[in-house]
Amino acid sequence: MSHEVPVTNREAEDRQGYFAVLVFPVLIILGGAVGYFFAEPVSGLSGLVNPLLGVVMFTMGLTLRPVDFALIAKRPLPVLIGVVAQYVIMPSAAVLVTVLLQLPPELAAGVILVGCAPGGTASNVVSYLARGDVALSVTMTSVSTLLAPIMTPLLTLWLAGQYMPVNAASMAITIVQLVLLPVVAGLLIRLLLPRVVDRLLPVLPWLSVATIAVIVAVVVSGSADRLISAGLLVLAAVVLHNVIGMALGYGVAALTGQPYSVRRTVAIEVGMQNSGLAAGLAAQYMSPLAALPAAVFSVWHNMSGALFALLCRRRDQQRALGAPAPDPLPR
């Protein structure tokens, strides 16, 4: 009987994880629908985008602990591989997608900004579901987020500056205000009030995704008149960008000799972006249309992440039964 409890608990956690990952896109789609059908009143909320982004990053900070950063010293190589891949593969893939699909300037700049954003917080749940290295996932997300005030503006200026004017200095200051300070504040509050925060932890992902849904509603309201004409092109760009990122992330981890759990985590971390942040920055520094790829990415990467996790778990089941089963992505 002693062996049944952990299995039951694990199964319950798996169900909760899948429920969250699959419901998150539904909530974001609902937000986008509200923004589209009620564009005029929702567009008046544009001034709330930055404060809402601060809320999202504050909730991320509340989930962090100092031990999450200790992995940098214990296992620096996989952390380095993942973070470097994050800021090399996704920006490069974004440029490739803009060229392949011949995207118009505003959409090209928006796709590139998504590629230059740090890893998304939902990647931690997906890594757990894919039986990846969850501790590594949390550390990679945290490190890429803390590097965002430097890396995101510089990469965006370099790669997207040819399509639209980019004020990298102002963007860096905004990211410090909206990302770095709220994350640090959340981390400190968890250190000071651990019991209170522990009680709130189950609610935080839902608060985060509800906030992102409002951000998406505002973003969509700003480009509602062009959503239908640009929608399929944006979706194609987002899907291609995400798939390339996950495939190359997995490949880099495999080429550097990382175990399967780390390969899966790097694939997820590289392919899943902080699209809420990208949407807010695009709306503020580019245009409403440039923010559309980030809004679509917010929906798609959760769905592709859930599918990847299912493929990973199926592979593990087949291996446990002794049947040959290739990994979901090539080695």
Describe, in short, the structure shown.
With 331 residues, the protein is an all-alpha fold. Helices cover 81% and strands 0% of the residues. The protein has a single domain, classed as Na+/H+ antiporter like fold (Up-down Bundle).
Order of helix and strand elements from N to C terminus:
HHHHHHHHHHHHHHH
| Residue-averaged pLDDT | 86
In whole angstroms, the N-to-C terminal distance is 38 Å
| CATH classification class | Mainly Alpha
Portion in strands: under 5%
Largest sheet: none
At CATH's second level, what is the architecture? Up-down Bundle
CATH fold type: Na+/H+ antiporter like fold
Unreliable runs = 1-7
Structural class: mainly alpha
Strand elements, count: 0
Verbal overview:
By secondary structure, this protein is mostly helical. It has a single domain (43-317), classed as Na+/H+ antiporter like fold (Up-down Bundle). Helix content is 81%, strand content 0%. It is built from 15 helices and no strands. The protein has helices at residues 4-37, 39-43, 49-62, 67-74, 76-100, 105-115, 122-129, 134-160, 168-192, 194-200, 204-222, 224-255, 260-271, 275-285, 292-320. α5 (76-100) crosses α8 (134-160). The radius of gyration is 19 Å and the shape is globular. It starts with a helix and ends in an 11-residue tail after the last helix. Mean pLDDT is 86; it is low at 1-7.
